[in-house]
Amino acid sequence: MSTAETTRTETAKFGIATMMAMVVGSMVGAGVFSLPRRFAAETGVSGALVAWLIAGAGMLTLAFVFQNLAVRKPGLDAGVYAYAKAGFGEYLGFFSAFGYWASACVGNVTYWVLIMSTVGKIWPALGEGDTLIAFALSSVCLWAFYLLIRRGVREATAINRIVTVAKLVPILVFVVIALVLLKPGVFADNFRGGPGVGSLFEQVRGTMLVTVFVFLGVEGASVYSRHARRRQDVGRATILGFLSVLAIFASVTIVSYGILPLSEIAELRQPSMAGVLEAAVGPWGATFVSIGLIVSVLGAYLAWTLMAAEVLFVAARDRDMPRFLGRSSAADVPGPALLMTTLLIQVVLLITVFSEDAFAFALDLTSALSLVPFLLAAGYAVKLGVTREGYADRPTGRGRELAVAVVATVYTAFLIYAAGLKFLLIAFIVYAPATVLFAMARREQGRRVFTPVELGIFAVSLLGAAAGVVALATGAITI
Fold first, then answer.
1. Which residues contact 17 (CB under 8 A, 6 or more apart)?
2. Is the pTM of this model over 0.85?
3. Do 30 and 179 contact (CB within 8 A), yes or no?
């Protein structure tokens, strides 16, 4: 029996309800409270509708990819990382594990920035979550959560289920109120967008990274597949969770266009959903949404910290990360992986103090870092469809699943294009130094660090990182 199988046997099993709560809890985070401003800055109603149609269809194909892979490759745990490794080798598998982990860590930074920006409306010293005082308070909360999670994965997961239900209430109330008070004239004026939003293609491209960010978590059940009671539950939880959250996200965006003019929504401070509801019903609306955001941050941060640590833990157990990251406590908590996760969040949190727009930077970087793991997972599904691997026992459905995988791969490649050169170079800066961990793992096993192909991949990542550093130093790109 493999290490992963032993671990799965020894840990508590999650049913479909719990796993769906993990997916929804992971996806419905603080990002949804920022959607009105982010969309209004890029597009009108028509562009938003097209963007959600494309993003929904594209991310749905990714959700189906994770569902199909869970069935076709039931022996692969911590899906996003394991699929890349199985399909394209250990080094790209390592990149997938590290990139997914890093994106989760950077994403957690957006939560602290946004919650401090929320409180900053009352306490101006916090600014928009990017002042030194905001950094200090965020750091205290960061380490408090570290101590909470160390007490046990099962306890933290129970808290996440409760918080998931609690944070959905203000979001649904917002949608209902905004729909009832929607002003047809304002909505019509916002339909095509303002004079500076560009063509429809540019509008859609400008919102793609935002949609990637809010859809992160669609793979949540796959990451926790080692805890699943039945493999089929992984795929079902993924699809049901995705469809529920898509309806919420699209509704929050579209109904906001019927409350305020486009230009006013684009100038709201974050969380912009609070500003929209305040314009609709008065100050109590902003307070109501702000409380919902704080609850949302608690749940989302908890879920993503757990998932980030889980990825490092499983990669170390599979000997693709240094072995110290594969240690866990009697409470099934991967202590060293959790500590490393918290340390990276702390470092990125410090960087945001020097950023021009801390929230936007962290959000876009999170999306950019996640695209490589998603692309590799989709590519692996294509490979299985072409080679027929995994279809011996269940040959039906191969053509349909292959078509879905191809669409998912093309969509993810488009997202990398939409991210632009800036975030691609910054992603290289993050990826390239991480190879130190890969080298440590290989040295522990007494193996050669790189194969010839892996050395070529490393050279490309190193050149990209060097170009990124030069671009930052010369001011060609900024954070």
1. none
2. no
3. no
